[in-house]
Structures are given as structure tokens and as C-alpha cells.
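Worked Example 4.2. Consider the chain below.
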Amino acid sequence: MKKFAIYTISIILPLSCIAPLWAEDAELKAIVDDFYNQYNQAFEAKNLDGIMDLISPEFRLLGTLAGKDHIKAAYQNLIEKHDQLRSSVTVDSIQEVESKIQIIGNYRLDSKKNGAAQWDTIIDDGFYEVLKKEGDSYKLVSSGQVVKERFSKIHGNTYKDEAIGFSFSLPDDWTLLPIELTTMKDGVMFMLPSGHAPGFFGHVQIPYNVGAKQAIEGDDAVMKKIVKTFKVLKSGPITVKGLNGYESITRYLVPDSSEEMTRHRIYLSGGGLLYVFILNAPTQHWDDISGHMMEIVNSFSLTPEARSAGAARDREKSASGEIMDRIYSNDELGCQIAAPKGWSIQSTPLGAFKISISIQPPDGNSLVRLFAVDTKGAVALNDVFEQEMNGIQSITEDFDVKEEAHDIELAGSTARTATFSFTLEGLGSLQRKSVMVIKNDILYMILCDAIPPEIASEMAASFDAIIQSFTLN
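Applying the procedure from the previous section yields the following C-alpha cells:
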């Protein structure tokens, strides 16, 4: 089923092309069919409480910090917005691992207005989900979106992106699965044949002046704020095939659970991109799988072109819209934004976002970013703005509201804005003016960061000019 993520800081093609990944068991299939039948019936009855009863308090969106409260708000918006809903699930593969059931399949959600004959498809996505028995019933504890278009990049146990110029391989019998990661490109999940040790790969172009060390330290700082049991066992620089990077091994208790997890992360810098490898497993199994991390990372290779210009090659293959002089425009979404004279503007593709643009002044580290993401009608402006404010406050230090959230008129629509300052380890201190607006179910976010916060007053006029230059057709 489709899930929804925190946006900042934060398949219709049958998946039988990868099935059967796992053996099918009649008893497991009956459990899974019953679970999704309950889900479909609850959704079609627009029974929000019934849907939420199927989701565990431990639930997390794969690769994000978003939990049960976030998707509850998304489901409530879908139910309120559409007169009638029709939900269907196709299950392709099932596997049980220590009383957890892992599922690969396809989810579809259709809607129509009362009295209309035609159903319109809202969501049609592949998924990977995990069920866990709690009491007398099974609950959903994890979910992620499978991306069908990237199966062509998988060759046996190797994932290869020829457009950018990188590849890596897994040990024999491990499973590769392309998934959507909100904040990274080319997201891949990998697992042992037993189903243990889900690992992740992705890459990101970081517009801020930070490298692998600062990125890992920032991630660790976020985890320390959210998970009080979080501790760093090891951290330090690492070099792999001439690429400089940083690694961290950490341990923590899963929130709302007694399960202890160990996580090994290695971030490598090359050609303007940060390549991220993560291996995550229950601590009781860590000694059995920990050695595979370096085996995977040592298989990673970059072409000479990727080493020198990976970020530029990524922009060339995946950037949306067009930049002419100092103006970015996107004909598909009907929007544009302009940089002040002397400022630079470039695409910085990021994860699931339909638009990711960075605008920088000629000097200093300050930055303006424009994001756009398709919400599928699952969020309301005030709700998502409040969630983002609360989310940033929960993971940063010295959070201070300079201008309370309020509505403004922008591009012919009602937008929401606020100004606040905070400190995040690895990134440092900044003052941010955040503006969000939704049109045709697309959420647009303009984030204006004054770095350091002491220069916010001198950046204000340029920030406001950029915001006011934003238009929507």
C-alpha cells in the first residue's frame, strides 16, 4: 500500500519479473490475504480507525523517520477529499523471517465522485512491506515503494547505472530491490537469503558545504535526539579505491520495541555526489553479517567520468525543467522561479522530488532551495507545514521561532510561511524562512537558509525577491 513521508531534513508492470524471490507458503498466504482484505474493506468504507488498527505503533516508512501519526494524517486527507475509494492489492512474493512476514506486491487506489461512472487512479505502485504479529493479529511495521523502472539496472547481483557511471555488487544469493527513498536517488534495498540485514544504497548531491564526515555526524545527531538509546560504537575516515569517505557503527533500541539494532554506514564522496551504504540488522545477528559490508563497498566502482563529474551527469540524466540565464521553469508543472542578479541557479536532483533546485549567492554558504513533490492529494497545507516545523524542532538544537507561521498570498494561491533558526550538528547554525503552497496536489516548498544566522537581515531582501518571483500557471 502507498505510504507518505516527511518531505524535508527531512507498478503496474507485474512484479512477477522478480518473483518468485521467495517460496510461497499456503498458511502465510492466507494470513497476508486476510490482512489486505481487511485493509481494502476499511479503506473503501472510509473507516480511518479500521485502517489505523492494522498499523503497529512501531511503524516506520522505509528509509525515513515518518511513523504512524504521519500516515494517519495522509489517510484522513484522502478520505475527506474523495467521495468514493476503491482499494486493491496484488501480492507477488511472501517470506517469513522470525515471525515477521515480508511481502512484495502492487497497490492500487482509485476514486470517483458520487454519481460519476468513471474511476480515476490515484496510486498505482509496487511495494515492499513487513507484517508482525501483535497479540492475536498481524500489524504493518514497515513499508516502502518499489520502483519498476529501475529493474533494468539490476544484472544478476549487480546494480549498475551507466548514465552516471557507477556499479556495486552483492554477495551470492542476496536480494536487490529498487525502492523509492525520499531524500536519495537510485535507492536500492538488499537482504540476505534469510531476509535479515536489510541494507540500503543511494546517492545525493548535497548543496550545503558539507562532506561525508559532516553528513554522518548530522545523521547521528538526529538519531540521538529521536532515539535516547542511540550510541556510537565507532566512527572515522575511510578510503575505498581512492574515494574519501567516513563511516559510523551505531547501536540503538527500535522505538516502541525492545529489539536492539546495529547499523553500519559508509558515505563516499566522488564527482560531487555522496554515495551512501547502510547495513542494518538485529544485534543478535550482527556478527554473522557485519563482514559483508566491506565486501559490498569494495565492489563499488566509478567510471573516470563519474569520478570527475558525477553530479553533472546526474543532473543531465534526471533534472526536470529548464534553466535559462537566472530563471528556472518547468512546463509540466507550470511553475518558474528566478535568481537575483549575480546569484547562481542549478538543478540538484533529490530522491522522490519532482523538482529540486538550488539558488546560491556569489559569496558565502547561504542557500535557497525549491522542492516540488506529488502528494497524491494526501496532505493539507497547514498539516504538512506544522509537521515539518515540529519535525525540525524535534531533531535540532536551539530551535527558535523568529516569525510565527501565517498565511500569505503567493502565485495566486494561499501559502504558509514561518521563519525560525536552529543548529544541526554537521550542518551548523542557520536561520530559515520556509514557504509552502499546494496546487493541483503538488506541494511546493521554498526554503531560504541564511548561513550563518547572523546575516539573515542582509539576506532578507534577496530571499523575498526569490519568493515573490515564484509563479504558477
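Residues 402 and 420 are 5 Å apart (CA to CA). The two ends are 32 Å apart (CA to CA). Compare this with Example 4.1 before moving on.
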